[in-house]
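Need tokens for this chain, all 279 residues.
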Amino acid sequence: MGLANPANLSSQYANAPNLDSRITLHRRFSVNKYSWHRWVFDQFDFSHDARILEVGRGNTALCTENRERMTETWRITLPDASPGMIEGAERNINLDFRNILIRNFTFTSTDAQGVLFGDGEFGAVVANHMLYHIPDRVKAVSRMARISRPGGVLYAATDGRKHMREVDGFITRLDPDHPEYGLARRFSGFTLENGEAQLFEHFAEVSLSRHKDELRVTEAGPLLAWALSTVAVREIAERVGEEEFARRVSELFESLEEEISEWGEIRIAKDAGLFAAKR
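Here are the structure tokens for all 279 residues:
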């Protein structure tokens, strides 16, 4: 079982800069200065000798931003289908962790849904903003339940329907004839509103914690970079052609700068949270 639309996803996440542009926007302009990754880590309840599988771990920020909170007795497996992301993850871990902790990490260039792992192998599975990428979530969640030991927990982060809906409007400005490129529609398969029912199919207990925050963006550049890093915008570029796309991007940038000049900032709603599903 592979990831949804693997060609698009491998392009979207093949190199860390695409992901970093999104992280940078949130880090610089979030109203809640207690970072998302610190908050997510607060929700974990790992045993002293936990075996942890983190799928969809991006640039390892969840680990590196919480390095001082991690114990040397944990064993953490980080799978990814993208060689570029594996390379970046190993580099980040090697830079940020003491030698005694580096050996606690295992990197595997493989399918992220546990095909190669045995029943009950992990005490915790962490899926940070990735389940909405999976076309067959029933099979994916079933496998995550299978590789979790009795009493183990799947921590699944995702967004609500209102999360960054304003960005849909920016994308629509680039291609008003094709509004279906909006983020809300693309990521609607597993949200804070419908995720609980999907997890209850395979886990005995499911709870949800929401992270309260919003963006107040005072610069057009980082906001435009965020939008340009998405699959949706690159698909628009491929369809309309390089010259026309450049013209539309320039117009959008000017429009965003005018809005910031007039209002002082652009406010963008955030609605993210974390499910804890226990076997």
